[in-house]
C-alpha cells in the first residue's frame, strides 16, 4: 500500500515522493492501519466519533479528542498541547475505527491519556517541523560523540525533536544501568534545549530503525507487529530447527519473532506423534528414533548396531509397532514397514531436477568460446600484413 507518487517511472526505477514518511496519504508509514470503514457512510441517527488517532515520529501514536466545529481527514497536520509547549503530528485514523483501536489497546474514552487537539498546523509550523526533522541526524551524531567522550556504555539509536524545538528525546539502549547526568548537562549546553533520555529494548530499537530481514522483506516489528512476545529456544526445537544463533537471531540480537508464527501448527501436529525416547522392539533389534518430518508424517529409525542405516517409516506404521510392543509382541524387522513411497518420490524429484535444469556438463559453455577464438585466429591469418 503506497501513494500514487511512490509508483515507478517509465524506466522501472521508483519515483518516490521524497517526503520520508510524512506524505499526506500516510500509506508508506510504519504500522499503518487500513481504514476499512472509510468508504461507509455513518447512519443519520449516529454521530461521528470525536476522537482521532495521531502519529508522531516512527511508530509512536496517541489518541486525541477533536475540538468543536473542526473536521479532520487522514494526513492533516495538527497541533497537540504537551507539557511546556506543543507538538505536531499527523492524523492517521478517524471515525468509528478509532473506537476499535482504543478498545484493542485498552484505553478508555474518559482516560487522561486522551488529550485535546488545539488546531490545525499552519505552514510556518510545518516548515519548522521539517527543519527539525532534517536536523535530527546531526544532533544524534554529536550526542554519540559526547557519550563516547564520557566513556558511557550506551548506544543512542534515535532522536525525536518536539515540534516547537524546545525539547528533544534521546532513545538509547544499554546492557547495564548508565549514569548520564553529566551527559544531559553537556547536551543541554551544546544544543540549548531540554533533554529527555529514554531507554528502550533491542526489539523496540529495531522497530524504530527498521531494516530488511533474512527473508528479504521489511522487519515485522517496523511494519505491522505491535506486541513483542517472548521467544524461547523451545519454539525452534518444536520445529526441528538447528539451534544456530546466527540463523535464529534477528537484527536486534534476540530470537526471531517469526519463530512463534507456526509454533501452534507444529504443536497440534506433534500431538499425534510418539515420544522420541520410545524404542521400537523387533526381532532383529531395537529401533532408535533419529528424526521426523512432521507434516509429511514420516519418521526415521535405525538399529542400535547399525547407526548409519536409517529406515523411513510412516506414522501409522510406527503407531502400529508401538501398539504391538505394548501387547508384548515383537515385529520381525523395520524393513517390513518401510514406506516405499518416499524413496520413489525422491528418485522422481532427482530425475526431474536434472531434466529441467539441463546441467549435464560444467563446461557446456566453453565450446562456443573456443569456436570464437578459432574464428579470430583465422581472420588474423587472412588479413594482409602491412609493410613496415
Care to describe what's here?
- The chain is an alpha+beta fold.
- The chain has 4 domains: 4-35 and 47-120, no CATH class; 128-200, 2-Layer Sandwich (GMP Synthetase, Chain A, domain 3); 225-269, no CATH class; 280-345, no CATH class.
- The protein is 32% helix and 20% strand.
- It contains 11 helices and 12 strands.
- The strands form 3 sheets. The chain has a 5-stranded mixed β-barrel with strand order 1-2-5-3-4.
- Strand 11 and strand 12 form a beta hairpin.
- Helix 2 (123-149) packs across helix 3.
- The radius of gyration is 32 Å and the shape is extended.
- The mean pLDDT is 82.
How would you summarize the topology of this molecule?
Layout: E1 51-55, E2 61-65, E3 77-82, E4 85-93, H1 97-104, E5 115-120, H2 123-149, E6 155-161, E7 167-173, H3 181-191, E8 194-199, H4 202-209, H5 220-223, H6 233-238, H7 245-248, H8 263-270, E9 280-281, E10 286-293, E11 298-303, E12 306-314, H9 315-326, H10 340-357, H11 366-382
Helix pairs in contact: 2-3
Radius of gyration computed on alpha carbons: 32 Å
**Overall residue-averaged pLDDT value:** 82
Percent of sequence in beta strands: 15-25%
H-E string: EEEEHEHEEHEHHHHHEEEEHHH
Look at the helices and sheets and give the structural class. alpha+beta
Shape: extended
Count of alpha/pi helices: 11
Parts with pLDDT < 50 across at least 5 consecutive residues? none
Arrangement of strands in the largest sheet:
1-2-5-3-4
Report the span from N to C terminus: 71 Å
Helical coverage, percent range: 25-40%
Largest sheet: 5 strands, mixed, barrel
Query: How many structural domains does the protein architecture include?
Result: 4
**What is the total tally of β strands?**
12
Amino acid at each position: 500500500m503506497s501513494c500514487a507518487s511512490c509508483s515507478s517511472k517509465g524506466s522501472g526505477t521508483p519515483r518516490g515522493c521524497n517526503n520520508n514518511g510524512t506524505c499526506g496519504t500516510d500509506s508508506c508509514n510504519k504500522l499503518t492501519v487500513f481504514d476499512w470503514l472509510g468508504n461507509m457512510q455513518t447512519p443519520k441517527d449516529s454521530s461521528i466519533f470525536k476522537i482521532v488517532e495521531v502519529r508522531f515520529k516512527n511508530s509512536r501514536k496517541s489518541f486525541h479528542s477533536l475540538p468543536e466545529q473542526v473536521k479532520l481527514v487522514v494526513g492533516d497536520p495538527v497541533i497537540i498541547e504537551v507539557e511546556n509547549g506543543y507538538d505536531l503530528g499527523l492524523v492517521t485514523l478517524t471515525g468509528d475505527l478509532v473506537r476499535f483501536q482504543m478498545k484493542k489497546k485498552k484505553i478508555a474514552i474518559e482516560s487522561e491519556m486522551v488529550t485535546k487537539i488545539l488546531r490545525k498546523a499552519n505552514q510556518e509550523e510545518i516548515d519548522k517541523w521539517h527543519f527539525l526533522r532534517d536536523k535530527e541526524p546531526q544532533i544524534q551524531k554529536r550526542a554519540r560523540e559526547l557519550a563516547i567522550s564520557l566513556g558511557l556504555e550506551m548506544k543512542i539509536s534515535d532522536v525525536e525533536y518536539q515540534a516547537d524545538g524546545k525539547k528533544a528525546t534521546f532513545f538509547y539502549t544499554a546492557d547495564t544501568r548508565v549514569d548520564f547526568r553529566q551527559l544531559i548537562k553537556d547536551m543541554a549546553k551544546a544544543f540549548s534545549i531540554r533533554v529527555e533520555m529514554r531507554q528502550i529494548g533491542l526489539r523496540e530499537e529495531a522497530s524504530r530503525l527498521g531494516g530488511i530481514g533474512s527473508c528479504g522483506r521489511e522487519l515485522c516489528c517496523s511494519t505491522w507487529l505491535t506486541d513483542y512476545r517472548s521467544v524461547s529456544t523451545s519454539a525452534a526445537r518444536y520445529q526441528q530447527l538447528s539451534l544456530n544463533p546466527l540463523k535464529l537471531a534477528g537484527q536486534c540480537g534476540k530470537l526471531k519473532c517469526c519463530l512463534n508464527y507456526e509454533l501452534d501448527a507444529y504443536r497440534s501436529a506433534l500431538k499425534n506423534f510418539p515420544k522420541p525416547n520410545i524404542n521400537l522392539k523387533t526381532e532383529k533389534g531395537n529401533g532408535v528414533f533419529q528424526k521426523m518430518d512432521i507434516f509429511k508424517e514420516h519418521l526415521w529409525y535405525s538399529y542400535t548396531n547399525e547407526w548409519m542405516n536409517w529406515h523411513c517409516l510412516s506414522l501409522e506404521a510406527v503407531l502400529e509397532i508401538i501398539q504391538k510392543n505394548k501387547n508384548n509382541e515383537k515385529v520381525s524387522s523395520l524393513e517390513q514397514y518401510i514406506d516405499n513411497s518416499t524413496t520413489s518420490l525422491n528418485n522422481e524429484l532427482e530425475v526431474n531436477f536434472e531434466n529441467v535444469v539441463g546441467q549435464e556438463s560444467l563446461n557446456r559453455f566453453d565450446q562456443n568460446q573456443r569456436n570464437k577464438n578459432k574464428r579470430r585466429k583465422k581472420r588474423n591469418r587472412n588479413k594482409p600484413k602491412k609493410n613496415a
